[in-house]
């Protein structure tokens, strides 16, 4: 499983649809902890809600989910697992606040928007800078809140630590 780096604000990938209330334990189940490494856990990600999910997922694909994706803990390991899987982005009706911050800090784009009309296997395009999401085959084209430039820079660097290492004198304006 390969980590995908975001090199631009444009993301294209195949949709893997999940439902509502997908908490971080469903992503990286605590039943595999302790004693298992993240690579092993990534092979079993989301299997409680979508059996075989990890085996169908390819690097560069996008997770699209309903309400409350990433709720219930501040466990950064959940994001690390998705990065190992090669998740290019997460699109959800709503995201857990701590989880959202962890995605940005770890270089994984995540946006909140209406997901109606998006289906499993669709090809999705996301423009983080312009605030656009499109699924051409379904005539879905909608505005989403653009990520602030500073957040886009953090994502492009691969996460907050990488960004700060590249910009040791950076200060919030």
What topology does this entry show?
Elements: E1 10-17, H1 24-27, H2 38-42, H3 53-56, E2 62-65, H4 77-85, E3 89-92, H5 97-105, E4 110-112, E5 123-127, E6 132-135, E7 140-143, H6 149-157, H7 160-166
Helix pairs in contact: 6-7
List keywords for this structure.
alpha/beta, 7 strands, Aconitase, domain 4, 18% strand
Structure, explained:
The protein is an alpha/beta fold. It has a single domain (10-166), classed as Alpha-Beta Barrel (Aconitase, domain 4), CATH 3.20.19.10. 27% of the residues lie in helices and 18% in strands. The protein is built from seven helices and seven strands; from the N terminus they run E-H-H-H-E-H-E-H-E-E-E-E-H-H. Strand 6 (132-135) and strand 7 form a beta hairpin. Helix 6 (149-157) crosses helix 7.
Task: Produce a short descriptive summary.
The protein is α/β, with parallel strands linked by helices and 173 residues long. Helices cover 27% and strands 18% of the residues. It has a 7-stranded mixed beta sheet.
Uncertain runs are 1-7
Question: Could you give the order of strands across the largest sheet?
Answer: 4-3-2-1-5-6-7
CATH hierarchy, class: Alpha Beta
CATH superfamily: Aconitase, domain 4
Shape: globular
| Straight-line distance between termini | 37 Å
Order of helices and strands: EHHHEHEHEEEEHH
**Proportion of residues in helical segments:** 25-40%
What is the total number of structural domains? 1
Rg over CA atoms, rounded to whole Å, is 15 Å
The assigned CATH architecture is Alpha-Beta Barrel
How can the largest sheet be summarized? 7 strands, mixed
Overall number of strands? 7
Mean pLDDT over the residues: 88
The proportion of residues in beta strands is: 15-25%
């Amino acid at each position: 499983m390969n980590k995908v780096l975001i090199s631009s604000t444009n993301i294209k990938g195949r949709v893997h649809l999940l439902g509502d209330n997908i908490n971080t334990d469903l992503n990286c189940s605590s039943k595999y902890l302790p004693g298992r490494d993240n690579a092993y856990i990534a092979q079993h990600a989301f299997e409680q809600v979508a059996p075989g999910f990890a085996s169908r997922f390819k690097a560069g694909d996008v997770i699209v989910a309903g309400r409350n994706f990433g709720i219930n803990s501040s466990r950064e390991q959940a994001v690390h697992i998705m990065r190992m899987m090669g998740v290019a982005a997460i699109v959800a009706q709503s995201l857990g606040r701590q989880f959202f911050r962890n995605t940005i800090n770890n270089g994984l784009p995540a946006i909140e928007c209406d997901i109606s009309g998006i289906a499993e296997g669709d090809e999705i395009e996301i423009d983080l800078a312009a605030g656009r999401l499109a699924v051409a085959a379904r005539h879905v084209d909608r505005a989403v809140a653009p990520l602030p430039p500073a957040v886009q820079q953090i994502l492009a660097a691969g996460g907050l630590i990488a960004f700060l290492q590249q910009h040791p004198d950076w200060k919030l304006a």
